[in-house]
# Entry
Amino acid sequence: MKQKGKPIRKNVFWMSTVSYFTDFSSEMLMPILPVFYESLGINKTFIGIIEGFAESFSNFIKVFSGYISDKIKKRKLFIVAGYSIPALIKPFYIFATGWLFVFIVRFIERSGKGFRDPPRDALIASSSEKKFFGLAFGFQRMMDTMGAVTGVLVLSIILFFFPGTLKPLFLIAFIPGVISFSIAARKVKEDHLLRKNHKTIKLTHIRSLPGAYMFFLIPTFIFAIGNMSYAFFILRAQDLGLSVALVPIIYLLYTVTYAVTAIPAGKLSDKIGKIPTLIMGNMFFIAACTLYMITLPIQFSWVPFILYGLFFAFNISIAKAYITTVVHSRLHATAIGLHNFIIGICALPASFFVGYLWDTFGVRIAFGYSIILAGISALLYLFMLFHPKGRVR
# Structure
């Protein structure tokens, strides 16, 4: 499976290509889904319930998909299923007439991400040399984000020439989705060494997860419970005077920044270490929130989105690279699934609490809350950096 000397190997390339087409398909729909929901008469409360439950369920599945993948020593089965489910379910949106049908379809669609993510990330690690983990995960995130950029651009072009088009978009998005899981089925190769070299995984083996990993979950949780949805960044930009017409532009700016810097961030983490790179990511997030705490001149309202994109580049893939470095390969999917689960269960209460603070005490308290928890998280990373077990490249 491993091709000696190549930083980005075939399996990593094909899985990244699959990610590109999947996000191409998904991001064509993400900006218009709320509009589509409202066109069906679904109010904002139910929209929040639909999205919140779908995302939480997706992250809940990740724990089990990761563990079962490690237990049965198979990755590709979960990857193909996880990419085919959202692709095949998307056309069913056109038959929606109310919130219940949308709830079921969205629930099924997001379950695909839960099935595929931990086994895919474990396969990326087993298909790469440890010294290139940061680069490999950075490449996958770059391709994933470039797919998002493509999807948003295609959506913008379609809506420019055919304003008001909604239901046909679900059929158009079906095309890159099918390409995605077709590539996964034909080109992605199973990790056959996993079956040969490792014993059967049992629940008791989870107790053997290393202390460095278990401690790593603490700053992960603290940051996640203070993290906020990108929607709050958009709302703050609008508060400062940004027009609705420019919102897709600054969102695209964040996405492009993320895509362009994902590989350099991964390379940097391979050189200086994963924990220092994660600390830098937290600093980018703190800087973005700090700028929006103050009354930023409207002409600079795009700057926090650049910093927000840098935060994602220096955080998401780097965290996976760290986990696959400190955890034994037989438990890679389990460890990644647990990490994703912790982030996922924090997402809904974190955004709710930030919104509550904003409505009740104002924007400075809301962003200040996120800054404080991101700072505590960074300090715990710093502790890990100086602890012998935490110094991992």
